[in-house]
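Re: the 538-residue chain
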Amino acid sequence: MDKKVDLMAENTERIMGKDAQRNNILAAKLVSEVVKTTLGPRGMDKMLVSPTNDIIITNDGVTILSEMQIEHPAAKMMVEIAKTQEKEVGDGTTTAVMIAGKLLENAEKLLDKKIHPTVIVKGYRMAQEKAQEILGDISLKITPNNTEILKQIAMTAMTGKGAEDEKEFFSGLLVNAIKSAGITKNADISDIKIEKVVGEGIKNTELVKGIIIDKERISNDMPKKVQNAKILLIDFPIEIKSPEIDTKISISSHNELQNFLDEEEKSIKLMVQKIIATGANALFCQKGVDDFARYLLSKSGIYTCRRVARSDMEKISKATETKIISNINEIGSASLGASDVVEEIKKSGENMTYVGGCKNPKAVTILVHGGTVHVVDEIERALLDGLGDIASALETELVVPGGGAIEMEISKRIKEYGTTLSGRERLAVEEYANSLEFIPTTLAENAGMDPIDVITELKSKHDSGNMNAGLNLFTGKIENMINAKVIEPSKIKVQAINSATDVATMILRIDDVILSKLPKKGRMNELGSLPGYMESLS
């Protein structure tokens, strides 16, 4: 008589074989469906409402997926694609997620035909390698000095987002910011600070060749404006440091208390005297400033900001060509930064500090204006996408046509490659090629066009040798995307294809899902249908 053996704890649940595969594929498809309507210049926005009623209105893929309360493990892997795409390139998050979802959807067709997952994975890997080879062949070379191309790249990135109505103005602003900050190949776009102010219209957004921080001077007795500023940056507090452990001080008389307080004042006075001795007339401190120190600094006419963020300190350092001092004993040898002016300015009721007129700023600020918090937040996301695209183009100096043109050309060539194969992998390669057509299909759907007519015409153009033919959604026609000035960095497509293939193949290889320490009721049904995971917003 056979005996039953329990390998796992009683509260462990398990999904095996086909059920596990289909469950994971369903989750990935649902994530793809969530973001697909946001793709392209005619894509729609999502409103995300948190439990505390904070509202985000956006069509940025990574923002949508990051804010959703997604719990399904396979769905979480799809979210990671978007985060990786955002980190590496700054744009193309929706594209990456959609390709991954379609790869898994098409793989399901092959699973129904009894094709083993490892065969599908092998075919997908072969197609991925071919796709990257094709991208290398057909990418167009640019030069960093071609300002017009960089503007076109930024405009393509911002089309369909909150900044679209002023995309020409913003693209010029971004290119000027990059040139002002001296950003070239492999440079850090974080040197361009984006500061937001609610008030006025988005047309009032401006580029400041210096740094603006959301801090005000710590005393009204300090000068509101300092000309020919000599700037000192410190990251230590101008106050008596509190002991790290509980300390008791025993004082038995009034004189002892007074002596104790006098010693504290003496220490702070000594610190301030060292600062004054440097000749600085503007001080930015990353830590706190004691009230007595504030009085002494005010008396000496030194414009002072305290608790300045480390990132802002580093940007001021780059803009004014000076170092951040970490030790009071090194302050005597400090080289002061220079700018024409340090001034407290008021923008839409908010006090800020402006460090302007820097001689050779390696960091600049874009001051974004807008009618509401939601508007300025979405403008910021659009500008970051534009910056990311320009930086990617500068890094590789390679671009590709947009509007679904590059996906159609890669799809066409992969299908041609598939005809040279003989094994079952050929079917997987063909489905990989079909997955890439999901991008132009969705662009057409989101614009209210007939996707079948669009794809048929696109295929005809590409078959006749027009590899730059794509969908111009402003004219509703198939055009040469280079001539239509719809251009994207090659790196976006390289990263999207790699990330999407990696996660699709990983999910396909899973045939067993073991869930530990979960409630005994309800969880398995949720995993099967997924409504709880996909509809919740955080």
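The chain has a mean pLDDT of 81.
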